[in-house]
């Protein structure tokens, strides 16, 4: 995040308790259809594999649009790309039903600026459930778009923001369901391509706010709750190396080792090799090593620290 985009602390209001009726209805319905309705259908009729593969395709597209697009491209500007890729990231990101790219980036930049404080929109100190989904179901979050002035310069970003419901309906419902209806029964097509896809993409993203701030190690920065955990990385397209991410949010990678599970990083790298992404930002090895040494020093006794300095 560019320091020039930071908004003063006093310009943000605290969250206020308010049941968001649409979200309170939406979440149980979508989760019920996914975790009860779909398994019952499979038990009764078996798997319609055309729909299962269609689910996988749209799940991959939408989840990658969130992690690669909403997160690393829009919120943190870790790489640059062309308008076509920007459109695809906005289109499939809308299909995840996680708000517009502009609003998502706005809230996420605020999360980084005020991590673990009362003005962090998904503050883990208020509990796992709050950070996972309670923050948008039962609280009204204040929005201040002063921290996304750079994104407001993009006509595509602003069109998606202003017409988000249309983008989300086409990407998240009409397109996958339309293809599904052409390849099998309507109920199977509906459950696989709409609630299952939206729900599982949603929980994958929510785990970044909850799981990745609760379980794992903090090898780069002990001042924040964000943690590195390979299980979290598997659940979130590589976002689980979250302590590294909070220490170096401008890096296009989260998992910096070749063996770290980070398909988002691999996808960005692949786009760069195809000429569709450029200016991939990486943290220097010296800065990473310095951060690790600073954390390791906290675990040493004063005698060990003095000995190491000799």
Explain how this protein is built.
The structure is a single chain. The protein has a domain at 3-218. The chain is 59% helix and 3% strand. It contains 13 helices and four strands. It has helices at residues 21-45, 49-75, 83-94, 101-113, 128-137, 155-162, 164-181, 186-209, 230-235, 242-247, 263-273, 285-298, 302-309, and strands at 16-17, 80-81, 139-140, 277-278. The protein has a two-stranded antiparallel sheet. A two-stranded antiparallel ribbon has the order 2-4. Helix 3 packs across helix 7.
The proportion of residues forming helix, as a percent range, comes to 55-70%
Number of continuous helical runs: 13
Radius of gyration: 20 Å
Please identify the structural class as seen in this structure. Answer: mainly alpha
| Total beta strands | 4
- Mean pLDDT over the full residue set: 91
State the order of secondary-structure elements, H for helix, E for strand: EHHEHHHEHHHHHHEHH
Catalogue the unreliable spans: 303-310
* C-alpha end-to-end distance: 38 Å
**Principal-axis shape:** globular
Topology:
Layout: E1 16-17, H1 21-45, H2 49-75, E2 80-81, H3 83-94, H4 101-113, H5 128-137, E3 139-140, H6 155-162, H7 164-181, H8 186-209, H9 230-235, H10 242-247, H11 263-273, E4 277-278, H12 285-298, H13 302-309
Antiparallel strand pairs: 1-3, 2-4
Helix pairs in contact: 1-8, 2-3, 2-4, 2-8, 3-7, 7-8
């Amino acid at each position: 995040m560019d320091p020039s985009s930071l908004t003063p602390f006093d310009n943000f209001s605290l969250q206020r308790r308010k049941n968001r009726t649409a979200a309170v209805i939406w979440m149980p319905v979508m989760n019920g259809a996914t975790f009860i309705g779909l398994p019952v259908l499979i038990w009764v009729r078996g798997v319609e594999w055309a729909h299962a593969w269609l689910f996988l395709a749209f799940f991959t597209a939408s989840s990658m649009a969130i992690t690669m697009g909403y997160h690393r491209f829009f919120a943190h500007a870790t790489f640059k790309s062309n308008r076509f890729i920007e459109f695809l990231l906005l289109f499939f990101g809308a299909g995840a039903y996680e708000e517009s790219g502009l609003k998502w980036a706005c809230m996420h930049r605020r999360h980084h600026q005020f991590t673990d404080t009362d003005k962090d929109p998904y503050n883990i100190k208020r509990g796992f459930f709050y950070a996972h989904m309670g923050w948008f179901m039962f609280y009204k979050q204040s929005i201040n778009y002063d921290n996304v002035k750079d994104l407001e310069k993009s006509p595509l970003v602003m069109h998606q923001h202003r017409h988000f419901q249309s983008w989300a309906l086409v990407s998240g419902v009409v397109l996958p369901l339309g293809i599904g209806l052409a390849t099998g029964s309507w109920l199977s097509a509906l459950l696989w391509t709409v609630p299952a896809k939206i729900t599982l993409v949603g929980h994958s993203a929510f785990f970044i706010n909850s799981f990745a701030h609760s379980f794992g190690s903090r090898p780069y920065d002990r001042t924040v709750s964000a943690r590195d955990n390979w299980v979290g990385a598997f659940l979130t397209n590589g976002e689980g190396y979250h302590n590294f991410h909070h220490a170096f949010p401008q890096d296009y990678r989260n998992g910096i080792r070749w063996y770290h599970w980070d398909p988002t990083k691999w996808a960005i790298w692949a786009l760069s090799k195809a000429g569709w992404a450029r200016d991939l930002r990486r943290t220097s090895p010296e800065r990473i090593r310095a951060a690790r040494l600073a954390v390791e020093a906290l675990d040493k006794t004063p005698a060990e620290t003095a000995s190491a300095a000799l």
